[in-house]
Amino acid sequence: MVFYLGKDVSVYFTTENTTIGVTPLTTTTGSGSVTTGSTATFAAQLDGTATQQTDVTSVDLGIGAMDEDITYFGMRTALKAEIKKETTLSLTRKKSNDDWTLVFDKLRYGLTGSTESDTSINSGLAEPTVEYGYRAYVHLSGSADVMTVPNCVVQGHTISMNVDGTTEETLELVSMVSPVISGANYVTPTDILDL
Q1: Of 114, 117, 124, 145, which one is least surrounded by beta carbons within 10 A?
Q2: What CATH number should be reported for the domain holding residue 109?
Q3: What is the number of domains present in the chain?
Q4: What single string gives the DSSP state of each residue in 161-183?
Q5: pLDDT tens digits, residue range 58-107?
Q6: Where in the sequence is the domain holding 29, given as residue range(s)?
């Protein structure tokens, strides 16, 4: 894993959808709802201007692989066969609104649809499509390097209160699609074969 301070990186989000962005809203009853559009506060549409995550204090980025141990009769050493790649992204920020809480509660797997009128929330209970999840862009300060993590889903969310009265929250994302490292945001839609 690689740990960055918030001043060393900038993190941006988009959806995996080319027409729909995400703005979580708190209703009067405290439950969450979502509005979509080009001025999204959590994640803009894929081919739009990515939405920067503000007040980020730390970023933890991990790249790994899931292995399966295969033992052969008569052999002492097991084969380690790689099953799939895994990229994890953990962001910590000063809590300034309920966006991350609502995303974790209602929008963990992103949105589907071609227009705002036929938008539906991915439930995570169906086979993933190319619109599954979000796309995260980690920009390294003082460099042109951008790590793009496609098809991220929200894995966890925690809120911590400190003694001095500050509140921090952590959003954990995970992706099984290989990340792309380039000189700019990688906005090409995910190929179905990469899922």
Answers
A1: 117
A2: 2.30.110
A3: 1
A4: E-TTS-EEEEEEEEE-SPPEEES
A5: 999 999 988 888 888 888 888 888 888 899 999 999 998 888 998 998 88
A6: 2-194
